[in-house]
Design a protein that fits this description.
Layout lengths: L2 H26 L3 H25 L8 H33 L17 H10 L5 H12 L7 H8 L5 H27 L6 H9 L2 H12 L6 H27 L7 H25 L4 H11 L6 H8 L4 H26 L2
Helix pairs in contact: 1-6, 1-10, 2-9, 2-10, 3-5, 3-7, 3-11, 5-7, 5-11, 5-14, 6-7, 7-8, 7-12, 7-13, 11-12, 11-14, 12-14, 13-14
């Protein structure tokens, strides 16, 4: 068996097993179970895993490039998504300005779309409400680089390069979600509430604080039994994170706005990771660090996008659909990233 095939099996078996079990449990257990599990992981589990894996991670080299790439990816995704919205609005205005059938003004040949453009016209003329624009931008910008990105990175690359994923998530995605993401939601949302609540959520995020604690804790010597216990606990947290992901997916019921969700995911999970991943090669970042960054860029939308969408009254249906399709689409795209950047 090839190395690529072995790596995929090594990832898919625990990923499908734990997420699938989470989906089954999410449908069978009370809805309070994933709520309490999420709180445990948020306040205790994830901080323990961050501190533990940071002790094993290699912080030498250009690891600080990861958050810079994260911000570049988020801004690029937001720019492309905004450009698509403006393109559709342009075609909508152009269509409205065309003479109608039965009017005195003749329809000129040059104003009539032809060929393949004529087939795309109904899709290009779609209406965009302000909440839909906000959800579209968030889905294309903020990835699940924590609960899903960590397990994928650890399974495919190992703890040695975990710092790249951690720096990408903590200083990139987390700050981006509750910084730029909240600003976008406030701009397009129907609600003007909860600005300070979400800002407080970012500042009090235990994952952010445990990141800095872990950096200072790296040089502290621990007994081998304690060290081994922390590693077992950290890997247990990874399994519980996948279990929680499955439980949350089982609670998603809306599959509307598939076209828009698919387009935002195409920007987020395919176009930008491919372009920036190739660009990393020209910066001298290759091998495992390059693969880690590409995998983080290609993660599906984070559940934080749903939290923000609900807080600011964005298009919840579009957000939920992007979450569901993106989580399933990751399994399809992983072989592509391994083939391009791990061989």
């Amino acid at each position: 068996m090839s190395t690529l095939g072995f790596n995929l099996i090594k990832l898919y078996v625990p990923l499908v097993t734990w997420v699938g079990l989470g989906i089954l449990l999410g449908r069978a257990l009370p809805q309070t179970v994933p709520l309490y599990l999420g709180k445990f992981l948020f306040w205790i589990g994830v901080p323990i895993s961050i501190v533990t894996f940071l002790r094993q991670a290699d912080l030498s080299g250009s690891v600080w490039v990861a958050p810079a790439v994260a911000w570049t990816a988020m801004l690029t995704c937001a720019t492309l998504a905004w450009g698509w919205i403006q393109l559709q609005r342009y075609f909508k205005r152009r269509h409205q300005q065309r003479p109608r059938l039965g009017s005195a003004e003749p329809i000129s040949q040059k104003n009539q779309p032809s060929g393949w453009l004529n087939q795309l016209t109904p899709w290009l003329q779609a209406d965009w409400s302000r909440p839909a624009q906000g959800s579209f931008l968030l889905a294309a910008m903020v990835g699940n680089t924590g609960y899903l990105g960590y397990p994928v990175t650890l399974a495919l690359v190992g703890p040695q390069y975990f710092a790249w994923a951690l720096f990408y998530d903590t200083l990139g995605s987390t700050l981006g979600a509750y910084g730029l993401g909240v600003a976008i939601a406030a701009r397009f949302g129907m609600s003007t509430q909860n600005h300070w609540r979400l800002l407080q959520a970012m500042i009090s995020n235990p994952g952010l604080w445990s990141f800095f604690v872990g950096l200072g804790f790296r040089s502290v010597a621990l007994p081998s039994a304690v060290e081994q216990g922390l590693r077992v606990a950290a890997w247990g947290v990874i399994a519980l994170s996948l279990l929680l992901l499955g439980m949350r997916l089982s609670q998603l019921t809306s599959w509307r706005n598939v076209q828009r969700a698919s387009l935002s995911l195409g920007i987020k999970m395919l176009i930008v990771p491919l372009l920036l991943g190739i660009g990393l090669s020209y910066l001298g970042i290759t091998g495992a660090p390059q693969l880690v960054i590409v995998l983080q860029m290609a993660m599906p939308p984070a559940f934080a996008t749903l939290v923000i969408a609900e807080a600011y009254d964005l298009d919840r249906d579009l957000t939920v659909t992007a979450l569901a399709i993106g989580s399933l689409g990751l399994l399809t795209l992983l072989p592509l990233w391994l083939w391009l950047f791990a061989t």
